[in-house]
Amino acid sequence: MKILVTGVGGQLGYDVMLDLKDRGHEVTGSDVFPDSSCMSGLTGAYVCLDITDKEAVYKTIKDLRPDAVIHCASWTAVDAAEDEENRLKVDAVNHLGTQYIADAVKEVEAKMMYISTDYVFDGKGSRPWEPDNTNYSPVNVYGRSKLNGELAVSGTLDRFFIVRIAWAFGLHGKNFIKTMINVGKTHDTVRVVNDQIGTPTYTKDLARLLGDMIESDKYGYYHATNSEAVPGGYISWYDLCAEAYRCYGLTAKVIPVSTAEYGLSKATRPFNSRLDKTKLITSGFEPLPVWQDAVARYLEEAGL
C-alpha cells in the first residue's frame, strides 16, 4: 500500500513511519522541516509539507496519489494554544490543515486516519467516554481545534478512521515521563496532579495498532490508549509519575496535589480522560499492552 504519513518529526509520526516500513508498505513521510533531518534513523521518502498551505497539500497528495493518509501532524502545545496570538495558528494546523488533507484525500479516492484526543469531551463525570459518543464539549482552545478537525474528516469522507488517544509518550520528542525523570534527578520532591484520570499511550504500541487499522476497512471512531491492568483501573498523572520513578529507580518523593493546588496551567484540563477501548476488541483489533509494561519498555528503550 502507498501511504503518506504527516508529522513524522513528532513522537507518533516517527513511530508510525517505522512500523509501516517494517510491514513493507511504500511510505512517504512529511513535516514542515525543509529536509529529512526529522527522519534520522528512518529510511523512506520525505516531502516538506506545511499542511496550512492549501495548494501545497493538494499538490502533494495529487502527485503522490496515496492509497491512505495517516494524519499525525498537530499543534499539541495545549497551554500555548490559549495565547491570543496563537489561536489562529492552532486552528490553521488542527482544523483547516485537516480539512485541506481530507478534501485532497477525497479527490484521489484514498482513505484517511486522523489522530485526535480525549480533549474533544468536557472531562466531566467518571464514566469512560465511548468512541461513538457525540456529546462533544471541549473546554480549551486545543480541544476545540481538534474537534473541528474531526468534523472536517467525518463531514468530507466516508472511508475514515478517527482515533482518539491521551497522554502520549514516545522516544522521539518531549513528553511527561521524560520531563519528570529529568526533574526527579535534580529534586528531592516533585508535585504531580492526582485528580485528572485516564491512561497513557506509548506511541510505539499505538503505531502497531494504527498499522493494523489502516490495512483494514473497519472504519469509524476508536479510542486507543494503553490498557488498564485491571478493568476500570484508570490512573492519574501522579500514578504515572510514581510508576516511572519506581521503574527507573529514582528516590525523589512524588507528592499528589489537586489541579487547583498545582495551578500552573493556562488551559483548562479535563478531569475525566477515561477512554473506553472495548470497540477495538469487538472490531477484531489487538488492544495496546498494559500501561505499566509500556512505561517499563519505554524507559529501557529511551536510555534516559
Structure description:
It is a single chain. Helix 2 (54-64) runs parallel beside helix 3 (87-108), helix 5 crosses helix 7 (237-248) and helix 7 packs across helix 10 (291-302). This protein is α/β, with parallel strands linked by helices. Helix 1 (11-22) links the parallel strand 1 and strand 2. It has ten helices and 13 strands. The protein has a single domain, classed as Rossmann fold. The radius of gyration is 19 Å and the shape is globular. Helix content is 38%, strand content 18%.
What's the gist of this structure?
The protein is 38% helix and 18% strand. It is built from ten helices and 13 strands.
CATH superfamily: NAD(P)-binding Rossmann-like Domain
Please identify the oligomeric state.
single chain
Number of domains: 1
CATH topology assignment:
Rossmann fold
- Name the strands of the widest sheet in spatial order: 3-2-1-4-5-6-11
Q: Low-confidence spans: pLDDT under 50, at least 5 residues?
A: none
CATH class: Alpha Beta
Largest sheet, in brief, is: 7 strands, parallel
Which structural class matches the secondary elements?
Answer: alpha/beta
Please write the string of helix (H) and strand (E) elements.
Answer: EHEEHEHEHEEHEEEHEEHEHHH
Secondary structure: helix percent: 25-40%
The name of the CATH architecture is 3-Layer(aba) Sandwich
The outline comes out as: globular
